[in-house]
Amino acid sequence: MPHRIHHHKSPPQENNMTFKSAITVSLVEEARGGPFVYWEGLKDACQKSASLGFDAIEIFAPGPDAVDEAELKGLLQEHGLVVAAVGTGAGMVKHGLSLTHADADHRAKARDFVKQMIDFGGKYNAPAIIGSMQGKWGGDISRDQALGFLREALDELGPYAAQYNVPLFYEPLNRYETNLLRTVDEGVEFCKTLSTDNIKLLADLFHMNIEEADLAAAIRAGKGYVGHIHFVDSNRQAAGMGHMNHEPIIQALKDIDYDGYLCAEAFALPDSDTAAKNTIEAYKRLTA
């Protein structure tokens, strides 16, 4: 009998990695058509994602005051969900703000917007994401200057996020969206130059598919730095709908003891419901 009990306990000990599933909802009309699965509000997103078995939602909001706190907390409680992360991209898409802009007042406004989004996410224990707000270098700004501005921003915003006991996520983007940092390795090396240790990398499989020679190897090399995953396919559709081989990627995440979210930041193709269903099916198959 003791042997049988031991036998039944072994599998969970062998595979003690626990991934969590999440799905994106955009509340930003200006971004309509972008890579977010749900578009029809928080109530719709919470009902549908919970019914499919997702653990969390990731919110792309136009600003810190766009969401009614009591309503969202009620929806999360009702549906057994949490907030995985909050995007700051509306700072760029809606307000044109960049953390690496040539003008110091503009950069200060950009940092203030991110702080407000960190405050918003903090109410739900959710980290904020810096993606498109990192901007680009060019014109009067050299790459070194832009990276200096980015370093300045992250060294201010990382500690700011720490008050909520959450990291701040920085996302390397592909060459068509930024000319700053494009790979996990570049992100790791940059993090090593920061004075804060509260920045973690968001590894987005779509961006990685463009920039990385070997996605699994890149994730392994990011051990200790990768804090969030955007779980999609090569064409930015739901996992399983492109040509990406996800098995080695999932194995690499297990190898680095990753226990965060696999979040679908994917196009709502052919529609939101199908993209969500395809994502959760791929997630269950790959993490079983």
From TrEMBL:
- Keyword Isomerase assigned to the entry: answer is yes
Q: What are the protein's UniProt keywords? A: Isomerase
Query: Carries keyword Electron transport?
Result: no
Q: Which domain of life is it from?
A: Bacteria
Tell me, what's a Pfam family for it? Answer: AP_endonuc_2
A Gene Ontology molecular function term of the record: isomerase activity
SUPFAM superfamilies (alphabetical):
Xylose isomerase-like (SSF51658)
Q: What is this protein called?
A: Xylose isomerase domain protein TIM barrel
